[in-house]
Amino acid sequence: MSLRGSCHCKATVFEVTEAPTTVTRCTCSLCSKRGALWAYYQPPQFRLLTPRENVATYQWGSRTIKHHFCPVCGCGTFTDTPDFTSGEPDFDNPRVSINARLLDDFDLDAVEVVVIDGKNLW
């Protein structure tokens, strides 16, 4: 069952192939200030319905992760990132993380929140 998500003004819209079973709350400075809860997908499981040129991107630090956001309303929408499950960036296995708070018609309170200590990891 695919799910659709969108920013506040609906200028950025995306779809994922399935509902997340968990979401991640990262404590790094950027994620904690954004307040996002991240759900991770393989690139084929994500589809951006907005033209890519209408999405803004922010990169910081190592510039390893592309943090995308709506240039109209400012909502953080999704990221392009290497897989970090081993603790090191795996560039051969890219991931897309979506801000699960933006999923339409989805009960986010029913999903387990996993906290990662990004404040001290990187």
UniProtKB/TrEMBL annotation:
Q: Where is the CENP-V/GFA domain?
A: 3-122
- The answer to whether UniProt assigns keyword Nucleotide-binding to this entry is no
Q: Which GO terms describe its molecular function?
A: carbon-sulfur lyase activity; metal ion binding
Tell me one Pfam family matched here: GFA
Q: Do you know which InterPro entries this protein is assigned to?
A: CENP-V-like (IPR052355), CENP-V/GFA (IPR006913), Mss4-like_sf (IPR011057)
Keywords of this entry: Metal-binding, Zinc
SUPFAM superfamilies per the UniProt record, alphabetical: Mss4-like
Gene3D superfamilies the record matches: 2.170.150.70
**The UniProt record lists the keyword Zinc:** yes
The protein's matches in PANTHER family, at most eight in alphabetical order, are given as:
CENP-V_GFA DOMAIN-CONTAINING PROTEIN (PTHR28620:SF1), CENTROMERE PROTEIN V (PTHR28620)
Q: What's this protein's family per the entry?
A: Belongs to the Gfa family.
Could you tell me what this protein is called?
Aldehyde-activating protein
Upper classification of the source organism reads: Bacteria, Pseudomonadati, Pseudomonadota, Alphaproteobacteria, Hyphomicrobiales
